[in-house]
Amino acid sequence: MSGDYVIGLDLGTTSAKAVIFHLNGKVICEAECLITTYYPESGWVEQDPNEIESFAIKAIKDAMGKAKIEKDEVQAIGISCAMHSLICVDKEGKSLSKALIWSDGRSSQQVDRFSEKERQDLFLKTGVPIHPMTPFTKLVWMKETEFEPYKKAAYFMSVKEYLLFHWFGERVIDYSMASATGLFNPSTLGWDEAVMEVAQVDANQLSQVVPPTYILRGLEKKVADGMGLLSDIPVVIGAADGQLANLGIGAILPGEVAITVGTSGAVRQFSKGVRINEKRETFCYAFTDEYCIIGGPSNNGGIALQWLKELFNSQDSYSDFIEKAGNVAPGAEGIIFHPYINGERAPIWNQRATGNFSGLSITHKQEHFIRAVLEGITFNLYQIERALCRLAGEPSKIYVNGGLARSNLWLQMLADIFGKEVYVAETHHSSAWGAAWTALVAIGKRNSFDEIKDNIQLGEPIVPNEDTHRIYQEIYKEYMKRSRV
């Protein structure tokens, strides 16, 4: 391979996206295919793994067509993937079930039946709280309900594993995707026998665990042709989207925290070694044999704003809708919003949690509610970050990406609530760039993960207003006091 390009393939919950980068990180072009999500029963959330595979191939082909570059100019492909998907697969690699994705809640009853001691013991082994998002609890549901695909399955896989098995005939999974299953021990970097026993799965039904720089070679010719690439292109397994978003935005050193807010949200920080929060507020997922990522995901980011916009039947654009909050002082004149309208993961890990407004009066108008929702989303992120502080100390720098990061009003609110400078990357392709950079490290084109900092363009930081920060500290105390969970 003699070209100057690398591809980041980002397999998200909403789309399969291929981004072609120059080796210095400049985006050449992107292509995206939206993934269909199915809701066959209440609480069930599924996607078709074969559709995702065909979309992944198409996204790369479309990106190559837009870029107008030759096949041999692409150095490698790196893969980012959303966590917590689960597919039952037969020996030939055929899917026996749809992909159950992170938001699938069918195992809620099984989760409720775990005792406090069982929750603590399992969490201390895996670093993953007991929650319906995890493949572990989904497997327990399959076992207890005698789910037919589970009984017939030779293998259990994530979406990424499924694609790689089809493309290369290898059953491999990277450390971070393995960690996200809830079946993996980040301290031993292996599948945990005791946890597998609870789900009644065997290690040979799970894939071989490999580091994020693992290279697969010999891409199926039909697949390579469909992508418009050479079949000998190195494909690097990469990691989960959360880890790679941190890497791709440059939040990789001690004290550097990444916050992502799109439909959902997350707060994450790299850590040397395993650090487990015994209160079970946050997760700890392996990334390499040396580093883990600690953090917490929230179900309730932009989805809460979308809900509010629909509730008011607002015809404004999202940016105009959000900007109305600028007409209201911090604290929304007494309204506090707890944003658990979609259940919640971190920091409370309660799928049945419900959102609420408190402090309402007859003088409150639409803009007060918008301000309260933005503040509630951000206070929830701040609560997650406070839990991380107890493990890793105060953050020195906040990096932000995701759809909400396009709002200057919200970015200032975030800086004011956290009391830290906030940095925003100029590209919103952080996970894809993290995947592409991992591929470059794997094939020897870059020396280390840390060097990525020299290849990320950041704008000027958003500086907190200290007076507003002090006001928000008092409002946060009230937010915690009024919490019903």
Radius of gyration: 22 Å
Quaternary structure annotation: single chain
Report how far the terminal alpha carbons are from each other: 55 Å
Main-sheet strand order equals: 3-2-1-5-14-13
**What helical percentage do the residues reach?**
25-40%
CATH architecture of the largest domain: 2-Layer Sandwich
* CATH fold-type name of the largest domain: Nucleotidyltransferase, domain 5
What is the count of β-strands? 22
Domain Carbohydrate kinase FGGY C-terminal: 258-442
Keywords: Kinase, Transferase
Domain Carbohydrate kinase FGGY N-terminal: 5-248
Family: Belongs to the FGGY kinase family.
Describe, in plain words, how this protein is organized in 3D:
GO terms for molecular function: kinase activity; phosphotransferase activity, alcohol group as acceptor. Keywords: Kinase, Transferase. Belongs to the FGGY kinase family. It holds the Pfam family FGGY_C. With 485 residues, the protein is of the alpha/beta class. The chain has two domains: 5-242, ATPase, nucleotide binding domain (Nucleotidyltransferase, domain 5, 2-Layer Sandwich), CATH 3.30.420.40; 251-424 and 447-485, ATPase, nucleotide binding domain (Nucleotidyltransferase, domain 5), CATH 3.30.420.40. Helix content is 36%, strand content 20%. Helix 10 (241-249) crosses helix 15 (430-442), helix 11 (302-311) runs antiparallel to helix 13 and helix 13 (366-392) packs across helix 14. It is globular, with a radius of gyration of 22 Å. The N and C termini lie far apart (55 Å).
